[in-house]
Amino acid sequence: MKFPDNFVWGAAASSYQTEGGAQEDGKGLSIWDTMCRQPGNIWSDNTGNIACDHYHRYEEDVSLMGQIGLKAYRLSVSWPRVIPEGTGKVNTRGLEFYDRLIDSLLKNNIEPWITLFHWDYPYALYRQGGWLNRDSAEWFAEYTRVIVDTLSDRVSHWITQNEPQCFIGLGHQSGDHAPGLKLGFSDVLLAAHHSLLAHGKAVQTIRSHARSKPVIGSALAGVVKIPFSNTHEDIETARQCMFSIRARDCWNNTWFADPIVFGRYPDDGLSLFEKEIPEMKDGDMETISQPLDFYGVNIYHGETIKSSDTGSGIPVPAPEGPALTTMGWEVKPEALYWGPRFLSERYKLPLVVTENGMANCDWVHADGKVHDPERIDFHARYLREYKRVIEEGVPCRGYFLWSLMDNFEWAYGYKQRFGIIYVDYATGKRTMKDSAYWYHDVIMGNGDML
Ligand code: FCB
User: Which of 201, 290, 294, 330 is most buried per CB count within 10 Å?
Assistant: First the structure.
């Protein structure tokens, strides 16, 4: 058994994490620009001002993608680069950057997958309430229209928003991410509701304005539960945990995915959140639940669950001395089996892993190369699990490795390196890591060597 012939082997990155050019060519401020300006928010007070300087070095980066043999590149567009105030006047010079980038990708036979929003929200709109303002859905649709009008003659793959669980949960509840808010839970849910509305309106906008037939999906954060054993009880318990809501926070699948796919909030969330449920208007759920072409999910880890006599699942603690990445995330390859399997069974959409990867302790070795055997082992193990679920008939269309290159890892700044291309931030020099050569071989053989 094999990966399907047209399987999409890709890599992903995002605008704020790679581009730099923070003040160039008329770009407006994003909430990450302002977040990074305040000392203490980011590790070592790093900023995305220059980042990988992808804004200037994109041609070199695309040529490296070509060397790796990527079939697709998942990039995001910086909303304030294109519309500095978030709505209204379009910044042509900003838009032209994406024009050039897309052309360069296509010239190298790499299919662009565009994420419209990967967290760099326009600061000007944040000052008008950001996601707390119901108009944010219209603002997002207006911005989507600009991008679709300009790029849909060449781009057909679209992702509306990256990980609402994170930009709402980390951005508006815990305050670890921009805009750094620690709101009460009813406001968190209100912001979430508006972001869901924005998703729905963006899908409508793409469908009605795209010049080539669009393929539209999500990039939700996957909260994956792994059964402790293959017994029926453990599998059902893990499934139930994966699709239940037990805490007043955003770390679940269903509060975001159920409205998007089924057009309703899940009952357990509705009863747990009760009085904090945001005000909804008639028709909201119809707007939110636009038909999608794929369920995109970012999966990094998972939690093992054992069934118990009471019927509820018990998390199984990690063994002593577990395998951890430098993020402190446990290596759990089975997450790429159970996540896709459970999600596809519930939501019945073709699945795409829109992110998977690890941060490692990488540096340029004395021989001038970057040896990262841990990352190769990580991806090999995860991809074998992904292959297993595909062999069982779960429809999975693609895999996007996070990340193409080392980049600005949000609150961790440049401390964490996720790339298969090493970036020397002082000089901008790129070095393909061993994992990049390995991924090239995987892609060339369509995963046969796994
Ligand atoms: C995901 C984000 C991505 C990157 C990886 C490590 O949550 O979507 O930008 O930070 O984690």
Answer: 201
